[in-house]
């Protein structure tokens, strides 16, 4: 069976609502985030997953569980969100007040991950994913998911700034015409 990667971003959190950079801080879903995760589960109900991998952070694990995939889920450390370092918990306005020209995908975060760091992490995960067959569910985060998507199709990490992922969204990474040499994105931010 050909590999199809179903990439899900976690449901809504308080920090997602307020626009605070949420990297490694381990916060739960809001009530609405739980509703979003259950709705995502309804969308996934007809798919039999051969592998389910989830970030170690509780917002991704809760989403996985509420979407009905928790029983077969395995923690995958490389699915964790971009480490925001000194910018953790700050809004874009806070960061721009200090660095008006800052761009996460170009600059990374002081005392956090650089674009090269997260790109290497995504590439390492892709190397493991391409050895799998069938339907794979990944429960992860916004910025890491964006990096994973662009690295899947061979783009530089900086291109991730152009690929938005909403809470509880579904994206599908696959191969064009099931040809392993032609990675493609079938669905993005659905």
Plain-language structure description:
The protein has about 190 residues and is of the alpha/beta class. The chain is built from seven helices and six strands; from the N terminus they run βααβαβαααβαββ. The chain has helices spanning about 15-20, 30-45, 60-65, 90-100, 105, 115-130, 140-150, and strands at about 5-10, 50-55, 75, 135-140, 170-175, 185. It has a six-stranded mixed β-sheet, sandwiched between helices. The model has no long low-confidence stretch (mean pLDDT about 95).
Name a few traits of the molecule.
190 residues, single chain
- Which blocks of ≥5 consecutive residues have pLDDT under 50? none
Summing up helix and strand content along with how strands pair, one would put the structural category as alpha/beta
Note the gap between the termini.
Answer: 24 Å
Radius of gyration: 16 Å
Question: If helices are DSSP runs of H or I spanning 4 or more residues, what is the number of helices?
Answer: 7
Percent helix, as a range, is 25-40%
Mean pLDDT: 96
Strand line-up of the largest beta sheet: 3-2-4-1-5-6
Largest sheet composition: 6 strands, mixed
Strand content: 15-25%
Number of E strands: 6
Shape summary: globular
What is the H/E order?
EHHEHEHHHEHEE
């Amino acid at each position: 069976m050909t590999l199809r990667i179903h990439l899900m971003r976690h449901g809504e959190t308080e920090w997602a609502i307020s626009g605070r950079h949420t990297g490694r801080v381990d916060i739960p879903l809001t009530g609405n985030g739980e509703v979003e995760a259950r709705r995502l589960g309804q969308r996934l109900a007809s798919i039999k997953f051969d592998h389910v991998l989830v970030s170690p952070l509780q917002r991704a694990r809760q989403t996985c569980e509420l979407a009905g995939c928790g029983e077969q889920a395995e923690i995958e450390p490389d699915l964790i969100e971009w480490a925001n370092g000194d910018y953790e918990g700050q809004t874009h306005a806070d960061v721009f007040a200090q660095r008006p020209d800052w761009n996460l995908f170009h600059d990374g975060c002081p005392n956090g991950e650089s674009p090269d760091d997260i790109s290497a992490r995504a590439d390492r995960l892709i190397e493991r994913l391409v050895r799998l067959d069938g339907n794979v569910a990944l429960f992860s985060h916004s910025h890491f998911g964006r990096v994973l998507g662009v690295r899947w199709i061979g783009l530089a990490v900086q291109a991730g700034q152009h690929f938005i992922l909403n809470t509880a969204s579904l994206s599908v990474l696959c191969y064009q015409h099931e040809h392993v040499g032609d990675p493609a994105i079938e669905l993005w931010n659905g």
